[in-house]
Amino acid sequence: MGRGKLRIYLGAAPGVGKTYAMLSEAHRRVERGTDCVVAFVEHHGRARTEVLLRGLEQVPRREIEYRGAAFTELDLDAVLARRPRVALVDELAHTNVPGVRNAKRWQDVEELLAAGIDVVSTVNIQHLESLGDVVESITGVRQRETVPDEVVRRADQIELVDMSPQALRRRMAHGNIYQPDKVDAALSNYFRPGNLTALRELALLWVADRADEYLQQYRSEHRVSKIWGSRERIVVGLTGGPEGRTLIRRAARLAEKGAGGEVLAVYIARSDGLTSASPKELAVQRTLVEDLGGTFHHVLGEDIPAALLDFARGVNATQIVLGSSRRKTWQYVFGPGVGATVARESGPDLDVHIVTHEEVAKGRGLPVARGARLGRSRIVWGWFAGLGGPVLLTLLLSTVHLGLANDVLLYLALTVAAALLGGLYPALASAAVGSLLLNWFFTPPVNRITIADPRNMLALAIFVGVALSVASVVDLAARRTHQAARLRAESEILSFLAGDVLRGETSLETLLERVRETFGMESAALLEREGDLAPWTCAGRAGSGPPVDRPEDADVDMPVGDHMALALTGRVLPAEDRRVLAAFAAQAAVVLDRRRLREEADRARALAEGNRIRTALLAAVSHDLRTPLAGIKAAVTSLRSDDVAWSEEDQAELLEGIEEGADRLDHLVGNLLDMSRLQTGTVTPLIREIDVDEVVPMALGGVPEGSAELDIPETLPMVAVDAGLLERAMANLVENAVKYSPDDRTVLVAASALADRVEVRVVDRGPGVPDEAKDRIFEPFQRYGDAPRGAGVGLGLAVARGFAEAMGGTLNAEDTPGGGLTMVLTLRAVGASASTPRPATAERQAAG
């Protein structure tokens, strides 16, 4: 049987009607003949919710006695034995009473889903783990019961149960949510209108983000390129001019008018004729858009309108914001401009906003150019002037006789115009055609190819020379302009690359995503290999294109050294783009080296930590071990003294002190040796199958009788552990719990099975440990609070965690409900699929 499906009713606050909606759905399913049962539903005394429970089969709850009180929890085994088609499980984030198999109800739900049972559940937005800090800042209340976001995100269906704050407060005032004695306090604290409005916004935005993920996944899977206006995404086209700030703020205001609006600013660097973009101004605009909650994108495109529209459709944008053109009126002879072109080609699915600003018609740094160096339209006009112009001029001069000198000057002017418009080749064509027409129609003898007067021959030669010179100069200027624009584009791309490094955006994946976005590719990957004959491996990848196993399989590959290459898929890049790509590739290699250096530094820190541990061991020997030795020596010296006649009671007391000092010394030496072996990696656990109840009771021998009680069922599965390491780890945990637990409260050692593992919990009623210190207490030589030096060297918990990890288990600390600390030791049950425990620590078959 496959995995069951999970449906979640999500609400912004208690009382919005999640449980009511869940029970209503259950009645609809039962009416359709679905086998649906109530596994656990809490009606909280709400009459209308309680009425809906009637007519539905309810699985009896499990009754548990805890701290002298009776509690009821979901009976997971009963539901699994019943095996309904659908089970209703209320309050997904609920924390179970200690003694139940799972610590959290969502873990119970995971078991039901794994068994093929569909589950319908409820949860409030404030119980999502990632929103804990946000909810606390809004309400002032820290949510102790949370559920991981990923659990909710994996749900097959999420339905928002919404209610306005005013309606929810009315329900509260009418006594439909809490008991009458709690209504006033709730309305004046948690259920204030501002709190409810903020929580409602959180719920709406979270569900909207989830829906957006579904939509993007669907569009990607079905290759949908048409824009779906399901959410306002506003693309701002930036030129690098000062008007960009106005456009960004205008787009931000447009985004605020629609819930969940998103602003994406994009600057398109063109390789054949950039406008005069200021890198400093672009940096300011990038900071501005990020401060307003948007994102900045830098894209390389040959045709700015086409690149802008491709980007907008790629991100499923709904609007484009552009500024009014800064070109002067005469510059429109070179084309309609970016704004007009984008508006014409955007189609019905994209709205284009042209925003006025103070820089309108103040001119641009360079004329607009598209396609080739001089522009496609200029070249066309150049050829027309070079070929058609001499013919038209000949027809004109046939009716008006101005003399040969004037005719030559007119043909020369026409050749210069062809050179200015189209460059070298149209000018050459104009000079050739013009010289032939001059010779045939206007140079004596006319209508003949010969020239009678040598001076006319010189005039024609000068005409051709001037024409060639002007054409060469214009072509050279165009070439230099193109090169300057290309270098400017490259410098801006590289400046943004350097800016990313300075801002700390140095992760390999981030850099590869920048490469993919800049060059408009489907995917980018950094490949490497150890030698010339070794296979290629992928060090990092970005994008959704097909994976590349070799650089030769990519559309573009850029070598980086002898054994590394940057591979791109999507299209073939022109040769002039490869220089910028080479800079990206070199930076990717640097980032990869830096990441590996950080890993080496981490390993060096680990070695340094080992040295610190050894130094601390010596310090511990100098004090903590000397104290029991001094006590033993003093007691032995006193007993051997002939000057004092000791009574039997005195002798017994001295012998008891010797025994206590020896025990304490044995315990300290054992922990020191264990920690030393853990740090040097010389423990190889001897794993075998044992019962937990065979080992754990032996760990209680070092604590006073009656200070700890056991609750270990005989039905637990066997675990794969090293018996000696487990005993030593449990002994340290129990001794630590007894040390901090009040004298009148016993420590509880309980075990339970959870899926493919067994959890052993050591529960104390001491002062507890703050959340920020829970990991620190497992570090070597850590004493919590004001523990005296005689309390030990602070190795017990560090040794326990080291032994747990050596056996393939984990050890973590949790708060005890009602106060105190609970140590949770998780072990692998026999038959569970898991990796072989890593050899972490001291070779031993028993820890005594």
Automatic annotation (TrEMBL):
<dbReference type="Pfam" id="PF00512">
    <property type="entry name" value="HisKA"/>
</dbReference>
<dbReference type="InterPro" id="IPR003852">
    <property type="entry name" value="Sig_transdc_His_kinase_KdpD_N"/>
</dbReference>
<dbReference type="InterPro" id="IPR003594">
    <property type="entry name" value="HATPase_dom"/>
</dbReference>
<dbReference type="InterPro" id="IPR003661">
    <property type="entry name" value="HisK_dim/P_dom"/>
</dbReference>
<keyword id="KW-0472">Membrane</keyword>
<dbReference type="Pfam" id="PF00582">
    <property type="entry name" value="Usp"/>
</dbReference>
<dbReference type="InterPro" id="IPR036097">
    <property type="entry name" value="HisK_dim/P_sf"/>
</dbReference>
<feature type="transmembrane region" description="Helical">
    <location>
        <begin position="380"/>
        <end position="397"/>
    </location>
</feature>
<dbReference type="InterPro" id="IPR025201">
    <property type="entry name" value="KdpD_TM"/>
</dbReference>
<protein>
    <recommendedName>
        <fullName>histidine kinase</fullName>
        <ecNumber>2.7.13.3</ecNumber>
    </recommendedName>
</protein>
<dbReference type="GO" id="GO:0016301">
    <property type="term" value="F:kinase activity"/>
</dbReference>
<dbReference type="InterPro" id="IPR052023">
    <property type="entry name" value="Histidine_kinase_KdpD"/>
</dbReference>
<dbReference type="InterPro" id="IPR027417">
    <property type="entry name" value="P-loop_NTPase"/>
</dbReference>
<feature type="transmembrane region" description="Helical">
    <location>
        <begin position="409"/>
        <end position="437"/>
    </location>
</feature>
<keyword id="KW-0902">Two-component regulatory system</keyword>
<dbReference type="InterPro" id="IPR038318">
    <property type="entry name" value="KdpD_sf"/>
</dbReference>
<keyword id="KW-0597">Phosphoprotein</keyword>
<dbReference type="InterPro" id="IPR006016">
    <property type="entry name" value="UspA"/>
</dbReference>
<keyword id="KW-0812">Transmembrane</keyword>
<dbReference type="Pfam" id="PF02518">
    <property type="entry name" value="HATPase_c"/>
</dbReference>
<keyword id="KW-0808">Transferase</keyword>
<keyword id="KW-0418">Kinase</keyword>
<dbReference type="InterPro" id="IPR005467">
    <property type="entry name" value="His_kinase_dom"/>
</dbReference>
<feature type="domain" description="Histidine kinase">
    <location>
        <begin position="620"/>
        <end position="831"/>
    </location>
</feature>
<feature type="transmembrane region" description="Helical">
    <location>
        <begin position="457"/>
        <end position="478"/>
    </location>
</feature>
<keyword id="KW-1133">Transmembrane helix</keyword>
<keyword id="KW-0067">ATP-binding</keyword>
<dbReference type="Pfam" id="PF13493">
    <property type="entry name" value="DUF4118"/>
</dbReference>
<dbReference type="InterPro" id="IPR004358">
    <property type="entry name" value="Sig_transdc_His_kin-like_C"/>
</dbReference>
<dbReference type="Pfam" id="PF02702">
    <property type="entry name" value="KdpD"/>
</dbReference>
<dbReference type="InterPro" id="IPR036890">
    <property type="entry name" value="HATPase_C_sf"/>
</dbReference>
<dbReference type="InterPro" id="IPR014729">
    <property type="entry name" value="Rossmann-like_a/b/a_fold"/>
</dbReference>
<keyword id="KW-0547">Nucleotide-binding</keyword>
